[in-house]
Each structure stands twice: as structure tokens, then as C-alpha cells.
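Problem: given the chain below (422 residues), write out its structure.
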Amino acid sequence: MSVDTHAPQLTPQQVMAPPAVDAWRRRWFGVSGIGIIASLGLLLLYFRAEDGLQHFLRAYLVGFIMVAGLTMGCFAMLSLYHVVGGKWGIPVMRIYEAGMRNWWLMVVAFLPIAFGLSHIYPWAGAFDVGLHGQHAVTVRGGYLTQKWFLVREFAIMFGWGIFIYFQNKWSYRLDSPAPSEYEYNQQRLRFMRLGGGGLVFWAATLELAAVDWVMSLDPLWFSTIFGMIYMVGQALTALALMAMVIYFLSKIEPMRSILRVRELHENGNLCLAFVMLFCYLSFSQFIIIWSGNLPEEIRFYLARSEGGWKPLMIVLVLIHFCIPFLLLLNRGVKKHPNRLAAVMLMVMIARLGEVYWQVNPMYPDTNGMIGHINVNLFDIVVPLTMIAIWVAAFFYQYAKRPMIPIYHHLTPQVLEKSHGAH
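Solution.
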């Protein structure tokens, strides 16, 4: 059976990003510039204060985890699409591709963490973890050392970069007709294999990264589900980005003519599925730790439910699961770009709050068992600045390529007049 890879009456030039995308890039670049000035100003102001640099790096770690989540979440969703296929991915493929091409920004953003390990992690000397904590660090031997931490992180990011490179390189071929049906089918098979391998590699290495970035802040605590929570969290972050970008693009050409209800609804179903999966994994971790009632495990939730943390925890339960879940059950929400974007904006805010809730109580002064929640300007300005820089770079990348892969075999079906309605 022949495969029609030619979209009718369209060329790559006709589906390039509109001028509004460049305007959004300039706008976000301006916001990030203001944020950089404010962040550096705060750092200079509090640099000589007690733990001033550590407070900056704490907030920076939160921002880095969000930036990494956006980048690798886009990679994971694109890899998933290459494995399962379907028309749902045609309008959003290039969004995920633009996001994962910010890999270089993620690597650059990691450098201040690499140079500031001694101010962030207890095993590097950031703060005292007591006799039991020091024993836990000793037992882990060479694993929790600055040298091997950096080797692992750069090796992981290099591996991610290889998969991103080939996905990006091969995607170019979807902007020109394949020489033959056989060549095109071989290309589809390569995409499927690359996507499957990428998902496996991402899952395995993100497990290690989540342990290094966050779990190692408390050498005594451990959870076998923690890495999976970060996997789903990154996917949710990418889905939230997709929903908001689609909303803004759906108001202008050419996306206004391309986007159909069916594809939007299917992406909305994906959002619902990952919201449910995140809740399932988070609740599973909680119920296992609660039923075990072991001192080295329950410390995680005690530190985040006492000392003023409980209101934030309740808000996160509401905006990360309860409200999005109930709203996304409604088909009308998933079939309208503005409604879906509003729900996923709430999820994006919840993702930032969730990362803050996971990272900050690891430190003695904000640990709910011995300290108190203390939100400072660093916690607000630094992560938002890093996200703004990432978004500005995202729009720069998105403007480079056609908004949809013109010579994908499913593109003609998506562009059919009778395919759907707005």
C-alpha cells in the first residue's frame, strides 16, 4: 500500500512560525534580562550574609530542576510519540522538538551547581547531617563524592544529548519528500527504535539524576519510587508547556487552520492520564512510608508537614491533582485550547511548588522538624528567571522550523477539511 507523504497545497514555508513567535521571544528575553539583573543584585546584596550564597544556590537548584524538566520532558513526550504514533502528535511535535533542543541551556545551567556543590549538598560539606547522616555518607563510599557526582551528571547529560541530536537530525527529513516509499518506511522504523531506546535510557538515567539532585540532600532518606515521580513530573511539565503554546498559537495562522478538536482532545487526554499517574505514584510513596513507619523514611513527610509547610502541602494536593483531575474529566475543557491551557498553567505552577516543597525542607533551617518554612526573594526571583530564559530560548528554537512536519504520512489526514472543527 502506498503512503502519501505529501501534504496538499502546503509547503514548509507556509507553515513557518508566525511573526508573533519572534515577538514572544523578545518579550521573554526582556523578562529574563530583568530577572538576571534582579538575581545578581540579590546575590551581591546578600553574598556576605550568613548562608546568603547557599540560599541563592538552593533557589537555583529549584530553577535548574524545572529547566531540566522542561527540556527532558519534551524529549520524553517526543520519544513516546515516535513509539506509539498517531495524529495527536502532528500539531505538537515541533513544540517538543524545540523544547528538547534547549539541551545545551540545561547543560550550561548545571555549571553553577557543579561549582557550588559544597554549598548545596551535605555530603560535600554544605551543612552537618549528624552522626547517623555522616555514617550514611561513609557507607555510600565513593558514590557520594564531588568527583563521581560530576562524572555521573555529565555522562547522563551527554547520553541525553546523543539521543536529542539524532532525533533532531532525522526530523529535518520530514520537511522534504522521501526518495521512495521504502526509504520513508525505513525512516519511520528508525524513529520508532530511537524513541524506544531513548525512553528506556531516559527512565534509567533520570532515576540516577533524581537521586543525585534531590534525594542526596538527605543522606538518610530513600525511596524506590522517587525517580518514577520525577519521570512523570517531567512529562507533566512538558504537557503544560504544550497546552499553553498551543493556546497562543491557535489564535493566529497557520496553527488556527491546522489545529483540530480531535488532536487537541487526545492531547488533553494525555494530560489527564499523567495527572492521574503522578497522583498514583505520589500516593503510593506516601502510603508505603506511612505503613512502614520507619524513622529514616517518615522524616521526609514530617519535614514537609510541620513548621508551616502543611498549608503548601494541602495547596499542592489541590492544584496538582484534585482540581486538574476534576476539570480534565470534562470533555469541553480538553476540546478548547484556552480552557486546557488554564488547567495546565495551574499544573505548571504546581510543578514549581512541588519541586520547592521537595528541595527546601532538606536544609536544617527550613526542615519542618527543627526549623520553619522561610520563603525569600531568591526562592521567587531565581527560578522564575531561569524559566524565563528557557522560554525565550524555546521560542527562538521553535521559529527555526515549520510548525508541523509537512511530509509526515499523517499530515494530509490532519489537514483534511472534514477532519474536524475548532
